[in-house]
Design brief:
Chain lengths: 116, 111
């Protein structure tokens, strides 16, 4: 159980374009999902908390207009990187909480974004 | 002061030895503690969680928690080359369901 998928696994886009990343909980309903980014050899950086049916809560310093998060159903959250620039190139990882009272998060496999 | 601190390593151990990883946290009210393993280029994988003081064993892994000292550790017994990875300590500090992550300790198991 507790399987989280992400799509796409890798994406290359041109500067100025937008990219959407999907995060799905496959065998459970996830009221709360999280979006992280990770630069090479660095730790995880939480970008935002995504709550089903409500607006995402962004961490300090994360531009909500640049990183659009939508959590339209209990099994799907999306992150859209708008007007991407080379500095947005990173490893984006989502996670989900089971919602059964525990605090453990289960991570998706990640999406490697390269902006040229 | 960082919320969750780990030695960055690298920690190099011979195959078959015990790898000992340490983690300290700043919020005394923290209640839930997690260890994740992350292979290079992959996403983190949950390997252990612990909520109560003392030891918790799962296979070759043992998590140890001491809330009075604000300290949580992970022991890997009979280390295997496949254990070579970065191990992330994570703590829930009561701020909804968010986890605070340490920077990770890189472990290398020498064959």
């Amino acid at each position: 159980g507790a399987v989280v998928s992400q799509h796409p696994s890798r994406v290359i886009c041109k500067s100025g374009t937008s990219v959407k990343i999907e995060c799905r909980s496959l065998d459970f309903q996830a009221t709360t999902m999280f979006w992280y980014r990770q630069f090479p050899k660095k730790s995880l950086m939480l970008m935002a908390t995504s709550n089903e049916g409500s607006k995402a809560t962004y961490e300090q310093g994360v531009e909500k207009d640049k990183f659009l998060i939508n959590h339209a159903s209990l099994t799907l959250s999306t992150l859209t990187v708008t007007s991407a620039h080379p500095e947005d190139s990173s490893f984006y990882i989502c996670s989900a909480n089971l919602g059964t009272g525990g605090y453990e998060q289960y991570f998706g496999p990640g999406t490697r974004l390269t902006v040229t | 002061q960082k919320e969750v601190e780990q030695n960055s390593g690298p920690l190099s151990v011979p195959e078959g030895a015990i790898a000992s990883l340490n983690c300290t946290y700043s919020d005394r009210g923290s209640q839930s503690f997690f260890w994740y393993r992350q292979y290079s280029g992959k996403s983190p994988e949950l390997i252990m969680f612990i909520y109560s003081n003392g030891d918790k064993e799962d296979g070759r892994f043992t998590a140890q928690l001491n809330k009075a000292s604000q300290y949580v550790s992970l022991l890997i017994r009979d280390s295997q080359p496949s254990d070579s990875a970065t191990y992330l300590c994570a703590v829930n500090m009561g701020n909804d369901y968010k986890l605070s992550f340490g920077a990770g300790t890189t472990v290398t198991v020498r064959a």
